[in-house]
Amino acid sequence: MDIYLPIAGMSVNAVLIIALGGLVGVLSGMFGVGGGFLTTPLLIFYGIPPTVAVASATTQITGASVSGAFAHMRRGGVDLKMGAVMTAGGALGSLVGAGLFRLLQNTGQIDLVIGFLYVVLLGGIGGLMLKDAMVALGWIALDEPEERPRHNRWVASLPLRWRFYASGLYLSPIAPLALGFVAGIMTVLLGIGGGFIMVPAMIYLLGMAPRVVVGTSLMMILAISAVTTMIHATTTQAVDIVLAGLLLIGGVVGAQYGAILTTRLKPDLLRFALAGIILAVALRMLLGLTWRPDEIFTIAYL
After folding, report:
1. Domain range holding 273?
2. Main localization of the protein (predicted)?
C-alpha cells in the first residue's frame, strides 16, 4: 500500500516503512541504541531526501526509546540521576547542532556532509564492535591486557564528584554532561540517538554497570530526540509527520520485542551481527558518495 509523504514530496510503501521502524525498534530494545544510525541511511537509500530522513528519524527514535526505556525501567535497569545529567548536556548539544545544521543547509552542503559523516562514523564504530565481538566469541586471540582501571584517567581526574547510587559510581558530572552534549549534536546533524557510541562510552569511560547502561542510554536518547524533533520542526521544517508516524508504529512494537530478546539470545552473537549490519550500511554509503553518485553537482539559481 503506497502512501504520499507531503514534505518528502513522494509516495512510499507504508508496510515497508513500518517494517523498517520495527527492525530499528528491536535493535533499540536489545542494544540501548536509538536506531537512527540505520533508519536514516536506509531511508536515504529508499530515495527520501537526506534532510527529511534525518529530521523524521528523530521522531521515530523518540517512540522506540519510550517503549524500550519503560521496559528496562520495570526491570530496575535505569540510573535516573545519571540519565538526567546526560540529558542536560544533550539539550545544550541539540541547540549547537541545530545551528550547524542550518549553516550547512544555507551552504547547500548538508547532504554531502551527512553522507561523509555516516561513512566515517559507521565504519569506525562497526570495525571496533566487530573486533570486540570476535574476541569475546574466541574467534581471534589477543595478548592478555593489563588490568584496566574502572574509570578512565581523564574522567577520574575531574572535580566536583557526585554519587550515582544506581550505577555504583562516585565521579564528576562533567563527564556524563560532555557525553550528552556530543550525543545532542549527533542527534540533530545525523538523526541518530547516539546510543551505539554512548553505550560503550558509558561502560569504558564512566565505568557504569552493564545492567543499567542500556536503560539509562534509552532514557537519555528519549529526552534528546524529543528536543531535537521540536528543534527540527520549528527551524528546519524538515519533519515529515506521515513518514515519522509510520516509523513510530513499527518502532514502538519492535522495542518491546528487543527488550525481551536481550534475555534469550547470546549478547556476543548479537553484537557480531549488529557490527556486520553497521559495516554493510557504511559500505553502501561510501559507494553512494564515490561510485556513480546520484548527484555529481548542484545548480543554484541566484
Report:
1. 2-290
2. membrane
